[in-house]
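FAQ
Q: What does a multi-component entry look like?
A: The components come first, one per line:
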Amino acid sequence: MSKALIAAIEAGGTKFNCSVGTGPGDLRSSARIPTTTPAETLRGVVAFFEQAVQEHGPFAAMGVGSFGPIDLRAGSSTYGFITTTPKPGWTNADLLGPLRERFGVPMGFDTDVNAAALGEHLWGAGQGMDSLVYITIGTGIGGGALVDGKLVHGMLHPEMGHLLVPLPATNAQHPLGTCPFHENCLEGYICGPAIEKRWGAPAGTFAEDHECWDEFASILASGLVNLITVLSPQRIILGGGVMHQAHLFPKIHREVLRQLNGYLQTDELLRHVAEYIVPPGLGDEAGILGALALGALAAK
Amino acid sequence: MSKALIAAIEAGGTKFNCSVGTGPGDLRSSARIPTTTPAETLRGVVAFFEQAVQEHGPFAAMGVGSFGPIDLRAGSSTYGFITTTPKPGWTNADLLGPLRERFGVPMGFDTDVNAAALGEHLWGAGQGMDSLVYITIGTGIGGGALVDGKLVHGMLHPEMGHLLVPLPATNAQHPLGTCPFHENCLEGYICGPAIEKRWGAPAGTFAEDHECWDEFASILASGLVNLITVLSPQRIILGGGVMHQAHLFPKIHREVLRQLNGYLQTDELLRHVAEYIVPPGLGDEAGILGALALGALAAK
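Then the predicted structure of the entire assembly, as tokens:
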């Protein structure tokens, strides 16, 4: 991995985190630009990086990990665009074009969660793993993955927040979740706002023994079982605001094993599940360091 | 792809299909060996290939696509074994060892469904696709996948038959499915025996307009939505005995779009779904030709 100076952008629905640096422990300057309109936000981003060049010198490449859906198809006329997001003003917004035009450096681009998966693979909890999943559970749910050391792309990119899952019996009388698209998806039932809608208070306010966490663990575990049956990752990393509550991990471990019910007899599951489903090694910096990693790969 | 003569084995729970050939349209001799005990079955397999060498000359490599779970970890002491199958006599059975010992050629080894995915990629409905899923729906359900042109492995291999899915309301009063492990998995509700248990007659006996097919399409579509949210494949190929009924495809297309509900706005889904979810190009030969392809890759 190059040690060149890289410009990194974690483009989110509420803010764009920007930074320049070379890797973990070396983020030299950072800023949070509010996500307003594309033009205004990108003006703020450009201004930050122009200032950063003044202070730290030129950067070798730029990496952008973005909220989605985004166009990642090489050669597409809308490559580097945010595409069909419901976020007002951002439908078909050209994210990469203005940055490439202004700075003229190699650009790495992927989803925010694929970026985080890459960051964890290089520097965090996924080191030495060719195959891993990174899930973030916060105001929404997203997931990225590496298979055979490469980020997963295909028709589009993973959209793991919308995995359909069976709901536990405790939830049978519950009104519909918060996803405007799906009645039974992970995000609609266990993202932060969904927990608040279901239980009447913000997720962070419930005691460790509140029943909301049993239901949360049950629903999340169904999503993780589905990831395991499809990708069979070597490790699953769970980040995001909701997962700051460390007491959730043992609940999730138990529930994944209960639902798999002995079908998959691997050491990772049966003997080392606490090392199989883990918090991010990079903590809340997984996203920005992942974007930096995208830039570093593009600089090669 | 090499044009050398390859020995291919599709190792199934009821029979081992064996063949020698070079690819589609050139399977020179074939046999079906009943799956009894490992020792007896492998004796039959070895005898077939010894005879084939007499008739067609030596083969350059052998490819084995097997029912699972199997050990694919390079360097493992049980590499090439069938591991924790509930099938009597086959737990921890060494499948590759006796064949390697007898024939001394390079061996390709993977799950039967990963093999079929590879075969479809090289010669069937997945040509030109770097990212695809192959699902078989018959006496059981299994799935294999390629990402970035490579078969998916990780902790283990995909076990897509055991994807957990929400059940439609029509199924609410239905007794549990046929899977001994999971209450809500794809295989337990829509493999051939599950359809027979649920509706009281073999799947092949129901008319095209029987309600069983609406429920089938609904449950299968939830599984496919989950595959799309995790892998975002460029194509999904549905094979196996139950899928011989071509009238199922339009039902499945409609149901996948209904459940995705406009969340993913891709041309593949919105304009070309009939070319996105398709039958195997190799028909019922996907498995044996996939095994041959595993051998051909190993011969390189």
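Q: Is there any commentary attached?
A: Sometimes. For this entry: The domain at 6-115+284-299 of chain B is CATH 3.30.420.40 (Nucleotidyltransferase; domain 5).
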